[in-house]
Amino acid sequence: MRWSQTFIPTLKETPADAEIPSHKLLLRAGLIRKLTGGLYTFLPLGLRALRKVEQIVREEMDRAGALEVLMPALQPPEIWQRSGRYQAAREVLFRLQDRAKREWLLGPTHEEVITTVVAGEISSYRQLPKNFYQIQTKFRDEIRPRFGLMRAKEFIMKDAYSFDATDEAAQISYRKMYDAYARIFQRCGLKTIPVEADAGVMGGKFSHEFMVPAETGESEVVYCEDCGYAANIEKATSAAPKSEIRNPKSEIEKFATPGVVTIEALAQPPYHIPADRQIKTLVYLLESKLILILLRGDHQLNEAKLAGVLGTTQFRAATAEEIYAELGAHPGSLGGVAATLKSGTLPIYADEALRGAVGMTTGANEDGFHLRNVSIERDLVVQQWADLRLAQAGEACSQCGRPLKVRRAIEVGHVFKLGTKYSEALGALFLDEEGKQQPAIMGCYGIGVTRTLQAIIEQCNDTDGIIWPVSVAPYAVCITPLTVTADSPVMILAEKICAELSSHGVEVILDDREERPGVKFKDSELIGFPIRIAIGEKSLAKGEVELKPRAGTLVAVKSDGAVARVLQLLHV
Ligand SMILES: [Zn+2]
User: Fold this and answer.
1) What is the CA radius of gyration of the chain?
2) Ligand 1 centre and the CA of 299: distance in Å?
3) What is the pLDDT of residue 467?
4) Quick one: pLDDT at residue 281?
5) CB-based contacts of 289: which residues, under 8 Å, 6+ apart?
6) CA 233 / ligand 1 centre spacing (Å)
7) Spacing, Cα 530 to ligand 1 middle (Å)
C-alpha cells in the first residue's frame, strides 16, 4: 500500500478532550475519529488493527470448538422480561419504538437471544455440549462515555454462550474459554492478569475477569504477591482484623458531640476516638423497609457484596428524611444500639470485622450525641454477619496473611459460569440419558474487542507514539524512501523491497509522500509500525539501507539483505 493512496490523518496536537494516552494516540495516529461522545468512526489504519484483533479472537474461539453465529442487534423486550433482566439492566438499555409504537431494544449482550435459539433447536443431551459465539456491535446507554473506545455507547464485542448437560461438562467448557482467553490476549501482545470477579446482575455462579494493569484503568484489582491471589475489588476479601479487647465490662455512656457528623471529626480533639474504634452506621432501603449496615469506622461498604448478601440489587441508600422519620436523628448521629431504636430492632447487617468488638463508639440516634463503651454483641441485635467491606491495600490476604496490594486495571475479558437462570426462564431444556427433562447449564464469555484494541495501545506506547505488537499492527513494515522521484535508484529499491516483502505475506506501507524525512519518521513512530526501512541516497551509495525496529535501535544493513533481516525480525 502506498501512503499517498490510503488515508492517515495524523495530528500534531492532542485533541483537548482526550484524557488518557491510548485515546490521544488513537486520534493522533489517525486511527479513529469522534462523531460525538461515545461514538467513533474507524479510519483505514484503525480498522486494519481492529480486524487483526478480531481475527485472533476468531481463530482461538474456533480452535476451542466454539461455533460462529450472528444474532440481531435489535431485540424484542419480551425475552428480557422473561429472563428477569429487563428491570435490572433497564438503565443501560437503549430502547426505541417502531412506527406502531412497539418497543424494541438494542442488545448490550445476547443471553436471551441465544437461549431462545437453543430452546427451539436442542432437545437431547446428545446435541450437547454446544458453544456459540459472535463478533458484533453492542449498545450501552453509558451515562458518561469517556476514554475513547474504553467506555463507549456503541462497541464491538465477542460474546460466547456455552450449553452443557452436566455440571462437570460446564466446568470443562468454562476452562476451555478461560484458556482460549489467555491465548488470545497473549497473541495480541497484551499482558493480562486473570482475577476472580463478582458475577453482578448477570446472575452468575462464579467468574473471572482478564485485566490489563494500567494506571488509567477504571477497575481495581486486589492482589497478593506472595500467594498469587487476585480479585476484582468488588469481589476481593481480606482477613477480618482481630478486635482488640478494651474495657469489656464498662457500661454504655452517652456524651455530647455538638456539630460532629463525621468519623474524621470524632477522631480529632477533643474526642480522640480513632476511626477503627468507631462503628459506621449506614441506612439502606430494601423493599421499602429500612435496614442498617454496620462497618468499622475506617472501612468502606462494598455494595456488590451487600447485593450478594441481600440476594438482590434492588436497594438504595435511604434519604435523610426517610432516616429521620424512622430513627429520629440525622446522618452523623446514627447507631444500631437496640435501646436507642424506636422499635427496639431494625434488621442489622454487620461486617465481620466488627464481630466481638467492644469499647466502640457509635451515634446515639439523637442529633449531637454519641455513645461510648458499646459492645457489639451485648448492645446490638445483629441479624446477619457478613463480609461487607471493601478490601484495602495493606490488609492481610485471606489466603496467606501477607499484606494485600491494590492496583488499577482495564477489564478486557470476562468469563462467567451462569448456571441455569436463563435456560430455565427461556425454556432451554433437554432430555438427559434417563429421559428426564433438564435445563441446560450455561456459561457466557465476553471480550471487548474495541476495548482490547485500545488496551494494547495503552500498554504499548512511549513518548513518540504507539509500539504495535506485530500481530495486530496495521502494517508490519513501513518503507521510507527519502526521495520519491519516480525511477530514482532510491524509489526503485523501495519498490523492490516492498514487492519482495509482500510476496512473503508481509504487510508493507510505502511512504511515497513528498515530505521532509523528519515528518515521515515522526509519523511512522507515532503510528508505531513495528519496523521501518529508511532508504536514502547517502546510505545507498554504500549499498546499505537503515532498518529501525520501533522499539529497538537503528542498524545499517546491506540493501540486498534487508528483506531476509526483516523476515527474521518478524519471525516469518
Ligand atoms: Zn496471599
Assistant:
1) 30
2) 20
3) 98
4) 97
5) 347
6) 15
7) 39
Residue 402 Cα to ligand 1 middle (Å): 6
| Centroid of ligand 1 to alpha carbon of 294 (angstroms) | 27
How many angstroms is it from 192 CA to the middle of ligand 1?
A: 19
Q: Which three cell numbers stand for residue 436?
A: 428426564
- The pLDDT assigned to 241 comes to 76
Residues of the chain falling short of pLDDT 70: 199-205, 243-248
Residues 323 and 284 sit within 8 Å (Cβ to Cβ): no
Ligand 1 center–CA 398 separation, angstroms: 7
CA 387 / ligand 1 centre spacing (Å) = 18
Q: How many percent of the chain have pLDDT more than 90?
A: 89
Torsion sign (Cα): 341, 342, 345, 349 = negative
Instruction: Check residue 401 and give its pLDDT.
Output: 93
Please give the distance, rounded to the nearest whole angstrom, from the Cα atom of residue 171 to the centre of ligand 1: 25
**211: CA distance to ligand 1 center in Å?**
19
Q: In this predicted model, what pLDDT tens digit does every residue of 534-556 receive, in sequence order?
A: 999 999 999 999 999 999 999 99
Instruction: Note the pLDDT of residue 269.
Output: 93
Give residue 236 CA to ligand 1 midpoint distance, Å.
12
Give pLDDT, residue 247.
60
Ligand 1 mean position, distance from CA 190 (Å):
25
Task: State how far the Cα of 212 lies from the Cα of 414, in Å rounded to an integer.
Answer: 12
Residue-wise pLDDT for 42-90, tens only, equals 999 999 999 999 999 999 999 999 999 999 999 999 999 999 999 888 8
How many CB atoms lie under 10 A from the CB of residue 385?
18
- The CA distance from 93 to 87, in Å, is 10
Decide the pairing of beta strands 369-374 and 253-256.
antiparallel
Among 179, 150, 196, smallest CA distance to 449 is for 150
Calculate the alpha carbon distances from 488 to 483, 517, 533, 540 in Å.
Answer: 8, 16, 17, 11
Nine-digit cell at 105?
A: 431494544
Question: 411: CA distance to ligand 1 center in Å?
Answer: 22
Domains defined for the chain, CATH in brackets: 17-72+107-216+408-458 (3.30.930.10), 253-386 (3.90.960.10), 475-570 (3.40.50.800)
**Ligand 1 centroid, distance to 229 Cα (angstroms):** 5
- Cα of 223 from ligand 1 centre, angstroms: 8
